[in-house]
Amino acid sequence: MPSRTPPGGEPSRPIRSWVRSSPGTHVWLAVIALTSLVIALAPPGVENYFLHRNSSNLHQLAHHPVRALFGSAFWIEDPAGIVLYAALFELLHAPVERWLGTAKWLFTVAAAHVTATLVSQQVVLAAIRLHDVPRSMAHVVDIGVSYGLAASAGVLTYRLARPWRWLYLAGVVAFFVVPLVTDRTYTDLGHTIALAVGLACYPLTRGKPVAHERRPGAH
User: CA-to-CA distance for 64 and 119, rounded, in angstroms?
Assistant: First the structure.
């Protein structure tokens, strides 16, 4: 007879295996959960200090570039949003990390985060100099957790076999580009740039398996 599963034994193994298969994703998510808790428990006004201090806006990039780029990837403005971000991390980051490996996944999201932040903020700077936006835009809260997600959404395109790849790509491009065209915010610009960086990381996917790929002669 098969042995019974001891209490707290087998059922927890799939969860541990899931987490261990994408350690970077879950460490990152754990840090965001911790910083969200800090924001939730902070006295009124103090949460703004943390968010502004870790923003990657023009002011922080000019004075603390490393902290601004690194720190902005670990904060979200609304602590209640951690549930949504947890779902998105599992749907996007975790599959990409398992597929590409932690090093290539981390390179993809880091490159997208840095590129999207620097380019979008340079556009803000140009707009300030042209007097298209107020100078206060140099101090707005700009935290870029979502830029990494956009990059993972982009590179995940190559995980799918044709024709599903093109349908997925059309949906992802519409999701990020339509807001850029209609709302024209600098955050939307950053998302689109991050998506493009993810798509540009195609060389990292070469030799990796494609989901549900149908080979010639297969039935």
Answer: 17
CATH number, domain with residue 91: 1.20.1540
Does residue 4 sit within a domain? no
Mean pLDDT, range 179-192, rounded to an integer: 93
Give the number of domains in the chain.
Answer: 1
Asked if residue 132 is part of any domain, the answer here is yes
3-state secondary structure 16-48: HHHHHCCHHHHHHHHHHHHHHHHHHHCCCCHHH
Nearest of 28, 18, 149, 29 to residue 93 by alpha carbon: 149
Q: How far apart are CA 67 and CA 50, in angstroms?
A: 12
Among residues 73, 121, 112, which one has the least CA distance to residue 194? 112
What is the residue range of 52's domain? 23-205
Give the pLDDT confidence of 11-67 residue by residue, as tens digits: 457 888 888 999 999 999 999 999 999 999 999 888 889 999 999 999 999 999 999
User: Cα separation of 53 and 68, whole Å?
Assistant: 8
* Assigned domain for 211 exists: no
Among the listed residues 60, 69, 66, 73, the one whose alpha carbon sits nearest the alpha carbon of residue 31: 73
Rounded Cα distance, 202 and 209, in Å: 13
Tokens at residue 202, please? 């195609």
Alpha helices in the chain (DSSP H): 13-20, 23-41, 46-53, 58-63, 65-71, 82-88, 94-100, 102-129, 145-155, 164-182, 186-200
Cα dihedral sign, 210-212-192-105: negative
Q: Is residue 129 part of a domain?
A: yes
